[in-house]
């Protein structure tokens, strides 16, 4: 059986290998080996050349349709046309899109983006490239919030169709942003080792004796955030669509493709649109260099969190006496963790946050069981809870703990009750349960630091801190 020191060394070793492997994988993503024959003679046999190097006159066209595939220019609407499209120039335009009846009835609307030669319709251009993106998605609408005393809603009106529809039924939402990119580097690929991630976005044409790839058009799905979604009502006939364009490098394109695939995999595993949005925010709202730094900091934070968790569990597993330990502080940490978990559950928070919070709540409940010396015995189907006895030293600690808690209650209870009453009068909530949980969690966030005082008071009275889990504290710091 491994000793504790050797197990810690093993964990640190595995962590170092993980970081090194991640760095190697990231290098393989952002660096692409060019065609070795491109710089030599013989016309670069086996190379795939960029069509954009010929500097063709291009045009960008965006169409909408309710069909997922189109074969001709029928039943489609042109919503944006950019003639003499400059692939180097960044732009952002907002257009109004007509919403068909099928889409208003919980249907789907697609955007077809074409990049083709200027002056030629996409259907008549053999060298056009296009990509398809849904402009709608399905989500459960956020419940209406009201003032619990007056019944006044946030919007002052609730549509009849919202009253009859179930809140847990997904409805069609409008994606109000469409972000486009074109890979602008004149990069020459090696035809024998094309990157698989980029290959599926490439369209090849034979021009004379050489093979060229047409412009690589890409839709940045990571920029589609939940905050930009709009509920589609049956009375909606037009909705705004912001189309933005920016050039992209090959390295960033490959990285973005991998990140989008990762988000898609999460959704396939059951993650909702809101869960995936939490992951998108990590990449979209952060500079790539800062993101790399954040990764290393987060990796080390994860390592120290694991070591703190391991030592904390080990400390409480071997704990047989509560001498010098504040039972009230343990109970408060448990209450706080459970309240935060229930609050996150009520807010329908991402599973990425909810699952760790739930695990933390279970661990804190286990600590309370250890602190109170609880044993559970089953009499048939009925559990019987028994509490252990304290010795004289533990009773002395409990006396100091109760004394500290009495002084703290004089300050804490009025503040919490006052805050709950103020929020009831001035803040709108979904239900009385939501108000109760929010009041508890506000008290936890605002005054949680005060519950360190019972343990500090016990330490002061006993003139000792040797009973605390210092290894866990060190790793948490």
Mean pLDDT: 81
Strand segment tally:
17
Specify the number of helices.
Answer: 13
Largest sheet, described in full? 4 strands, mixed
Q: If strands are numbered along the chain, what order do they take across the biggest sheet?
A: 10-1-12-11
Q: Strand-and-helix sequence, N→C? A: HEEEEHEEEHEEEHEEEEEHHHHHEEHHHH
Radius of gyration over C-alpha positions, nearest whole angstrom:
30 Å
Distance between the termini: 29 Å
Question: Helix- and strand-based class?
Answer: alpha+beta
The portion of residues assigned to helices is 40-55%
- Specify the overall morphology: elongated
- Low-pLDDT windows of residues: 154-167
Strand content: 15-25%
What would you say this structure looks like, in words?
By secondary structure, the protein is α+β, with helices and mostly antiparallel strands. It has 13 helices and 17 strands. A 4-stranded mixed β-sheet has the order 10-1-12-11, with no helix packed on it. A hairpin with a 2-residue loop joins strand 16 and strand 17 (about 380-385). Helix 1 (about 5-30) packs antiparallel against helix 7 and helix 7 (about 290-315) runs antiparallel to helix 13. It is elongated, with a radius of gyration of 30 Å. The protein starts with a helix and ends with a helix. The relative contact order is 0.10.
Keywords:
4-stranded antiparallel sheet, alpha+beta, 4-stranded mixed sheet, 477 residues, 21% strand, 13 helices
């Amino acid at each position: 059986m491994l000793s504790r020191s050797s197990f810690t060394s093993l964990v640190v070793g595995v962590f170092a290998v993980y970081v090194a492997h991640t760095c190697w994988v990231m290098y393989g993503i952002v660096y692409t080996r060019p065609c070795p024959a491109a710089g030599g003679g013989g016309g670069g046999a086996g190379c795939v050349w960029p069509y954009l190097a010929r500097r063709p006159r291009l045009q960008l066209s965006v169409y909408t349709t309710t069909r997922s595939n189109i074969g001709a220019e029928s039943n489609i609407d042109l919503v944006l046309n950019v003639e003499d499209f400059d692939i180097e120039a960044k732009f952002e335009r907002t257009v109004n899109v007509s919403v068909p009846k099928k889409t208003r009835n919980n249907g789907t609307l697609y955007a077809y983006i074409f990049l083709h030669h200027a002056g030629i319709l996409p259907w008549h251009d053999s060298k056009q490239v296009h990509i398809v993106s849904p402009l709608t998605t399905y989500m459960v609408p956020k419940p209406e919030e009201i003032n619990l005393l007056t019944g006044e809603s946030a919007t002052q009106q609730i549509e009849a169709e919202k009253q009859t529809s179930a809140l847990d039924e997904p409805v069609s939402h409008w994606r109000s942003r469409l972000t486009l990119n074109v890979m602008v580097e004149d990069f020459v690929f090696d035809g024998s080792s094309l990157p698989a991630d980029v290959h599926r976005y490439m369209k090849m044409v034979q021009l004379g004796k050489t093979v060229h790839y047409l412009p690589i058009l890409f839709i940045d799905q990571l920029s589609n955030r939940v905050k930009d979604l709009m509920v589609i009502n049956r009375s909606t006939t037009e909705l705004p669509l912001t189309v933005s364009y920016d050039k992209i490098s090959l390295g960033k394109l490959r990285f973005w493709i991998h990140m989008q695939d990762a988000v898609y995999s999460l959704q396939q595993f059951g993650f909702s649109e809101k869960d995936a949005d939490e992951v998108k925010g990590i990449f979209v709202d952060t500079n790539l260099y800062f993101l790399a730094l954040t990764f290393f900091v987060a990796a080390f934070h994860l390592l120290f969190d694991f070591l703190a968790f391991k030592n904390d569990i080990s400390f409480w597993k071997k704990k047989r006496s509560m001498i010098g330990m504040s039972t009230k502080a343990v109970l408060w940490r448990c209450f706080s963790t459970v309240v935060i978990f229930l609050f996150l559950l009520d807010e329908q928070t991402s599973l990425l946050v909810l699952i760790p919070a739930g695990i933390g709540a279970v661990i804190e409940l286990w600590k309370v069981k250890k602190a109170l010396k609880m044993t559970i015995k089953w009499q048939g189907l009925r559990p019987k809870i028994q509490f252990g006895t304290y010795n004289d030293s533990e009773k002395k600690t409990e006396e100091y703990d109760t004394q500290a808690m009495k002084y703290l209650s004089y300050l804490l209870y009025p503040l919490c009750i006052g805050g709950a009453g103020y929020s009831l009068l001035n803040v709108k909530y979904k239900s009385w349960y939501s108000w109760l949980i929010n009041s508890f969690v506000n008290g936890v966030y605002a005054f949680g630091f005060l519950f360190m005082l019972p343990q500090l008071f016990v330490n002061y009275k006993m003139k000792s801190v040797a009973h605390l889990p210092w290894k866990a504290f060190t790793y948490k710091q």
